[in-house]
Amino acid sequence: MTQLANVEMIPQGKVNAGMPVLREPKRVISPFEFLPAWFFYTPVVVQSAALSLFHRDWALPLIANPAIKLSGMVGESKHDIFTSAGPHTNGWILPFITLTKPSDGTEMSFESVKVRLQDAGLGYPLVAKPDLGCRGVGVKLIQSDLQLHDYIETFPSSGRFLLQEKSPYSAEAGVFYVRQPGEARGKIISITLKYSPRVIGDGKSTLRQLIESCPRAGKLQHLYLPRHIDQLDAVIPAQDEFQLAFAGSHSRGAIFRDGNQFITQQLEQKLDEVLGEFSGFHYGRLDIKFRDIQSLMAGEHFDILEINGASSEAAHIWDSDTPLSHIFSTLLKQYRLLYQIGAKHKKQGHNSPTLGSLLSAWREEKLLTQQYPMTD
Questions:
Q1: Does one domain contain both 339 and 192?
Q2: Does some domain include residue 234?
Q3: 139-172 burial, b if ≥16 CB within 10 A, otherwise e?
């Protein structure tokens, strides 16, 4: 495999093992990264209004993925998506079990949970995640009975959550895949490399001091300090890496870099094969763990963590060096694709959902996400 410009094919320490070491960005944090969503989506709303008038149907994006509730725009269940994916696709998804916390206030039997894990062949470490939710909300790394018990205790009643095997790989990416209805081949339109934020100890500084002195983390202390409140005064040994965030979500502190230079025909062909039997999935982002960047480019040695639908973003736009014009053009292109795919499905006989169903799903998700445990 040829050496790429702007990247060194060497290991990225323990926390980000397998990730390419990219050239340092020009900006530590861009002025656009953490602006409110309405700023970026106002042009999308204007374009969507025009497309809705053109197609005489505002809800076409909600049938772009007929296999997923509301196409995955809001309120989609991770469990239901995995179930709909079929056995072949599930062979690439990390094993999991799904649990529902009782709504009547009775305590969930911890022993029954352990039995379910044992029957599924799952053990620690595990990744706990809400069944409904996005942007990494409520995701936690579980490494002991105590941590699992605490997660269950703090999870909202009647809420459903997954306990998923933790991938043996450290490297992570979001791979955005689009396949037009009636076509056997799809297209990768974005790869986002997700770097876990970390600080490296010097044997003298406390964790708080290391965070405060870090060029990027020091400007995002509100994301990192609350998670490590019990360790902030601990001195980190020299050369030890301390991972500041586990969930691969930009809004939760992960560092996103543009990985489009790593899109290959081999990876596209592999995803065509992996998703080939997932009827009704045409548009979305796969969150993937992989061994190393060469393996990912070859379509080998990776695990699927999640499959996200219509609300997915081509998240490479949150690279701190991405110009504002590219952020807007990418989001606008995404929604043109959604309308295009939805229009084709409508011609095939799929019915658009009602506004009431969309609002109901949004209210349910919003209510639950406010009650989830703090994200790792």
A1: yes
A2: yes
A3: bbebeeeebbeebbeebbeebbbbbbbbbebbbb
Neighbours of 103 (CB within 10 A): 10
3-state helix, strand, coil in the chain (%, to 5): 40, 20, 45
- pLDDT tens for the chain, residues 1 to 376: 344 545 544 446 688 999 999 999 999 999 998 899 999 999 999 999 999 999 999 999 999 999 999 999 998 899 999 999 999 999 999 999 999 998 876 678 889 999 999 999 999 999 999 998 777 788 999 999 999 999 999 998 888 999 999 999 999 999 999 999 999 999 999 999 999 999 999 999 999 999 999 999 999 999 999 999 999 999 999 999 999 988 878 888 899 999 999 999 999 999 999 999 999 999 999 999 999 999 999 999 999 999 999 999 999 999 999 999 999 999 999 999 999 999 999 999 999 999 999 999 889 888 888 888 888 7
- Alpha-carbon distance of 18 to 289, in angstroms, equals 10
Which strand ranges, in their side-by-side order, compose the sheet holding 302-308? 255-258, 187-195, 171-178, 283-290, 302-308
- Coil/strand/helix, residue 97: strand
Return phi, psi of residue 156, to 5°. -65, 145
Q: Specify the pairing of strand 160-165 against strand 187-195.
A: unpaired
Spell 2-41 as b/e; 16+ CB within 10 A means b: eeeeebeeeebeebbebbbebeebeeeebebbeeeeeebe
Task: Assess whether the previous peptide bond of 31 is cis (omega < 30° from 0).
Answer: no
Q: Which residues of 240-252 are buried (b: 16+ CB within 10 A; e: fewer)?
A: eebbbbbbbbbbb
Domain range for residue 161? Answer: 95-166
Cα-flanking dihedrals φ and ψ of residue 316, to 5°? Answer: -60, -20
Query: What does the alpha-carbon distance between residue 99 and residue 112 come to, in Å, rounded to a whole number?
Result: 10
At 93, give phi and psi (nearest 5°): -90, 135
- The domain that contains 105 carries what CATH number? 3.30.1490.20
Backbone φ and ψ for 52, nearest 5 degrees, come out as: -65, -40
The verdict on 188 and 293 lying in the same domain is yes
159 and 278 part of one domain: no
DSSP H stretches of helix in 23-144: 37-55, 78-90, 110-119
